[in-house]
Amino acid sequence: MDIATLQRALAELFAPWVQALDLRVEAADADGVRLRLPLTPALVRQGEVLCGQAMMAAADTAMVLALMQHFGAFRPCTTVQLNSSFLRPLSQQDATVHARVLRAGKALAFGEIDIAGHRDGKSVCRASTTYALL
After folding, report:
1. Theoretical Cys-Cys bridge with 95: which of 27, 37, 102, 134, CB 3.0 to 4.6 Å?
2. Could you list the residue range(s) of the whole structural domain that residue 92 is in?
3. CATH number, domain at 70?
4. Within 10 A of 86 (CB to CB), how many other CB atoms are there?
5. Which residues are paired to 83 by β-bridges?
6. What is the rounded CA–CA span in Å between residue 10 and residue 24?
């Protein structure tokens, strides 16, 4: 899939509040997808730090796009498990969200997501996911 198709999917497949994250698809290849999550005033908490809820939503969304990339089209799915570890706070820069599919079977898919500072490349959150393929 190309970047434009995945970007359109963000507008067509996701709830308005997810669209409000203003995620931008930056890359899509055999290794998954890479999105940019802008650091906006609506997504920060005390101390001007990107909130964990925004990172979790971005991670979940990125993995759906990674599954689209993997299968070559949207396939209905639902999150079964999303486990995250927050490594450090992120402030004063956008986030890069890299999602990749580890394995996709007939009924389940497994993936991992790394969220890092867009400017410095330092990891701020790691997540693992399991999706039921419908």
Report:
1. 37
2. 3-133
3. 3.10.129.10
4. 14
5. 128
6. 9
- Distance between CA atoms of residues 54 and 70, nearest Å: 24
Category of 34 on φ-ψ map: left (φ > 0), alpha (ψ -120 to 50) or beta: beta
pTM above 0.90, yes or no: yes
The amino acid present at 104, given as its one-letter code, is A
Q: Which residue has the tokens 């393929």?
A: 133
Q: Which residues does residue 87 pair with via DSSP β-bridges, in sequence order?
A: none
If one counts the domains in the chain, the total is 1
